[in-house]
C-alpha cells in the first residue's frame, strides 16, 4: 500500500492531507455528493504507515481519503469507525482538534 502525505501550515495550525496514491486526482460521486481528491491539496510525498500516524498526531486537523489509509487509522484507533464516510466506494474522514 502506498500513501501520500502533504502538510499545509496555516495561522490556525497544521493541516495534514492524506490519501491513497491511486485515488489522487480523481473524483468520486454518490447522489449529489462529490469527493474531489485534488492533486494540489493531497499531492504530497509518498510515506510509510508510521509517518502517517506521526503526522496525524501532530496536526490541528486532517483530511483523509482512500480505503487503505482510512482503514489503517481506524485499525490504529486514531479514527473511530463511526467517523468514516464513503462516497462512490471510497472512504474518507476528517479529524479536527479545537
What is the number of strand segments?
A: 8
Provide the number of structural domains: 1
The arrangement of helices and strands along the chain is EEEEHEHEHEE
Sheet with the most strands: spatial strand order: 5-1-2-6-8-7
- Separation of termini? 31 Å
Q: In terms of per-residue confidence, which ranges show pLDDT below 50 for 5 or more consecutive residues?
A: none
The number of helices is 3
CATH class: Alpha Beta
Roughly how much helix do the residues carry, as a percent range? 10-25%
Class computed from helices, strands and strand pairing:
alpha+beta
Roughly what fraction of the amino acids lie in strands?
35-45%
Sheet bearing the most strands, described? 6 strands, mixed
Describe this structure in words.
The protein is an alpha+beta fold. The protein has a single domain, classed as uncharacterized conserved protein from methanopyrus kandleri fold like. 22% of the residues lie in helices and 43% in strands. It has three helices and eight strands, in the order E-E-E-E-H-E-H-E-H-E-E. Strands 5-1-2-6-8-7 form a six-stranded mixed sheet. Strand 3 (27-30) and strand 4 form a beta hairpin. It is globular. It starts with a strand and ends with a strand. 28% of the residues are buried. The mean pLDDT is 95.
Describe the structure using short key phrases:
6-stranded mixed β-sheet; 98 residues; single chain; uncharacterized conserved protein from methanopyrus kandleri fold like; alpha+beta; 22% helix; 8 strands; two-stranded antiparallel ribbon; 3 helices
Amino acid at each position: 500500500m502506498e500513501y501520500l502525505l502533504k502538510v499545509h501550515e496555516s495561522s490556525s495550525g497544521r493541516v495534514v492531507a492524506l490519501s491513497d496514491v491511486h485515488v489522487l486526482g480523481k473524483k468520486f460521486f454518490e447522489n449529489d455528493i462529490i469527493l474531489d481528491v485534488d492533486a494540489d491539496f493531497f499531492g504530497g510525498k509518498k510515506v510509510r504507515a508510521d509517518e502517517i500516524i506521526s503526522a496525524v498526531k501532530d496536526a490541528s486537523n486532517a483530511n483523509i481519503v482512500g480505503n487503505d489509509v482510512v482503514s489503517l487509522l481506524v485499525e490504529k484507533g486514531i479514527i473511530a469507525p463511526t467517523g468514516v464516510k464513503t462516497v462512490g466506494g471510497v472512504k474518507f474522514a476528517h479529524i479536527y482538534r479545537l
